[in-house]
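ATP-binding cassette domain-containing protein, Flavobacterium restrictum. Tokens?
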Amino acid sequence: MPNETIISIKNLWKSFGKNDVLKGVNLTVNKGEDLVILGRSGSGKSVTIKCLVGLVEADKGKIAVFGTDITNLKNEELNKIRVRVGFMFQNGALYDSMSVRQNLAFTLKHHTKDLSDEEIEKKIIEALENVGLKEAIDTMPAELSGGMRKRIGLARTLIINPEIILYDEPTSGLDTITSREISELILSVQKKYKTTSIIITHDMACAKMTGNRIMILKDGVINAEGTYDELEKSEDEWVRSFFI
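Tokens:
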């Protein structure tokens, strides 16, 4: 189905105490699209995607994922949506007391019941091969570089075969070369698995490389939208400031 809407957010509001972070965000993401959301620190980028999976509860608005309004779903129903959505956290969010193998197995067992040990091992190896880190299977997180932790975080996201992947600052804290490798990995994952993605980033090289479309958050609303080239040539000085 052409331009099938997978994610729809309408008039999303979220405050923390007296701090109004989101003030009526509207966006849609089509099947197979990679949408990049830009914005200054504290603009609500991460809050937006956390609302999408119920990690943060919206104050007002409608959030539809796979055509289902999730805003008032009970936890059991929400979990049926969550198992189809992968979330790559900013720091990789690995369990430090578990090896890479154990981290991936834990996620797989949590999402998928009744798998044999052989099936679990096969899926772990496949996920690690997809991020180029099969040799790290018995490594502890503390032994991994920042870039490797991001890759393992992505492998853990991929192991549940998500239809949507939400990336929260996937290249933050990485050097230029490693950042580029992670951006290339995001593209190869999208191509191989036909995922739909939202990528939260400050990294303009990552935004240019991965985004079919870019939105910019300002003062709690979407201030600008377009392709990288369109926004780079914007007449709005504030929008152009991201591209300098």
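Residues 184 and 209 are 8 Å apart (CA to CA).
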